[in-house]
């Protein structure tokens, strides 16, 4: 480990940036100038590197150094730090950059330059900020809205520029000579400046990595817009991502065409028709359930049993009835005898799909010992729920306890009345 510095100071730690000299280079050999353990991993400075450090909206390169994964690459005070998840065994290393990852972001970045240039020239849709995400690239523009035709126009113009396969030039200059360049936005740097120029389409100071020509970007496709801070953000699929997106959407549409026995041009119409049909059927089902609830309640009412005080107990099953209708039925049954000399205790249970609904109610003036019911009856159906006078409701998971619940309800009411008299 002779000659290795563990202190990251001094000019000698400057790294030759091979990624600028040849952005297409993926393998390189280099020497370790400094290494130390950091909480993120082994922090390594090399004399030269193809690894692009995170910056300018572009993420850090991935890859390996002597077969060890490079988990991050960062630039601090002009130094480039490679973070490795293990320590390299010797000072002479071979680095390999993950080209798929790198090229993906070169496409994102260059595509964004083309789009920002086109949008600016189209009508002052100035780019305010950009984000190159893992799924898509976004461009926020200095406008509150943009018409769909304008987005399509930007997309078409950008794809024309891609088809023309124009060189993407990187020119080094100094901050005092920037007047010679028609910059899209002001460069806030001093000293050496790197200018990225695409013919008369875009010209901007940028430290990122780009494809050699516009043709390598392949394709740009807008997939939507978002609103942010009162402005519009355009969402793009660029390069291979646009092709993958096209493939995925074609697969989805092909499946829908099969499912709906449709053609591409009447697919939406068929889906809409089916949706309308579903809404109609849901309405019919709801109406039928309501009627079923009323009929079942009528039958249960006829089978009511009398309590020692001459009140009535209505218990029974009402399957396939939604909780809402069950509750309405319980209230109605309890209210039916309101104002009369006697009242009604109501206990309704019903299986709906996988679960059990329960609902209890009483006529005004009658007591219901809900604490006792909670203690003695709910466990029978593995139930939970509650409520307040005169309505209690909930669900249960032990459907097999249904009959016992109904029987015991009657007994609890009868014994309560006997105790009172
Ligand atoms: Zn750039």
Short description:
The chain is α+β, with helices and mostly antiparallel strands and 421 residues long.
Write the layout of secondary structure elements.
Blueprint: E1 16-17, H1 18-21, E2 27-38, E3 41-46, E4 48-49, E5 63-65, E6 68-76, E7 79-84, E8 92-97, H2 99-123, E9 127-132, E10 137-141, H3 148-163, E11 169-174, E12 192-198, E13 202-205, E14 220-228, E15 231-238, H4 240-259, H5 267-302, E16 305-306, E17 312-317, H6 323-336, E18 344-352, E19 355-362, H7 370-376, E20 383-388, E21 391-396, H8 402-420
Parallel strand pairs: 1-4, 17-18
Antiparallel strand pairs: 2-3, 2-8, 3-7, 5-6, 5-8, 6-7, 9-10, 10-15, 11-12, 12-13, 14-15, 16-17, 18-19, 19-21, 20-21
Helix pairs in contact: 2-3, 5-6
The chain binds zinc ion.
Zinc ion binds next to helix 2.
């Amino acid at each position: 480990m002779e000659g290795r510095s563990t202190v990251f100071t001094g000019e000698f730690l400057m790294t030759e940036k091979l990624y600028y000299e040849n952005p297409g280079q993926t393998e390189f050999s280099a020497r370790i100038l400094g290494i130390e353990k950091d909480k993120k991993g082994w922090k390594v400075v090399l004399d030269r590197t193809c690894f692009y450090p995170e910056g300018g909206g572009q993420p850090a390169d991935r890859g390996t150094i002597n077969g060890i994964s490079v988990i991050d690459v960062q630039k601090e005070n002009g130094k480039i730090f490679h973070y490795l998840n293990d320590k390299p065994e010797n000072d002479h290393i071979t680095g390999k950059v993950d080209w798929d990852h790198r090229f993906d972001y070169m496409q994102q970045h260059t595509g964004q330059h083309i789009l920002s240039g086109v949008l600016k020239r189209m009508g002052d849709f100035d780019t305010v900020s950009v984000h190159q995400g893992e799924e898509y690239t976004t461009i926020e523009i200095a406008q509150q809205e943009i018409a769909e035709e304008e987005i399509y126009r930007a997309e078409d113009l950008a794809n024309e520029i891609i088809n023309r396969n124009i060189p993407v030039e990187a020119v080094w200059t100094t901050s005092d000579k920037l007047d010679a360049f028609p910059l899209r936005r002001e460069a806030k740097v001093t000293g050496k400046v790197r200018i990225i120029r695409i013919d008369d389409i875009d010209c901007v100071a940028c430290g990122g990595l780009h494809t050699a020509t516009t043709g390598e970007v392949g394709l740009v496709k807008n997939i939507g817009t978002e609103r942010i801070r009162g402005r519009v953000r355009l969402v793009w699929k660029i390069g291979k991502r646009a092709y993958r997106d096209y493939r995925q959407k074609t697969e989805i549409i092909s499946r829908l065409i099969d499912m709906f026995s449709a053609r591409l041009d009447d697919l939406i119409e068929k889906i809409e028709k089916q949706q309308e049909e579903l809404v109609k059927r849901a309405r019919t089902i709801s109406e039928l359930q309501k009627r079923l609830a009323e009929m079942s309640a009528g039958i249960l009412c006829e089978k009511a049993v009398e309590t020692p005080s001459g009140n009535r107990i209505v218990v029974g099953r009402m399957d396939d009835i939604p909780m809402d209708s069950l509750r309405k039925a319980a209230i109605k049954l309890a209210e039916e005898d309101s104002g009369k000399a006697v009242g009604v205790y109501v206990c309704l249970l019903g299986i709906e799909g996988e679960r059990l609904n329960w609902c209890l109610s009483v006529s005004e003036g009658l007591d219901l010992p809900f604490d006792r019911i909670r203690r003695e009856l709910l466990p029978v159906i593995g139930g939970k729920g509650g409520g307040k006078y005169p309505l209690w409701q909930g669900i249960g998971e032990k459907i097999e306890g249904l009959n016992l619940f109904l029987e015991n309800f009657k007994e609890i009411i009868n014994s309560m009345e006997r105790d009172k008299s």
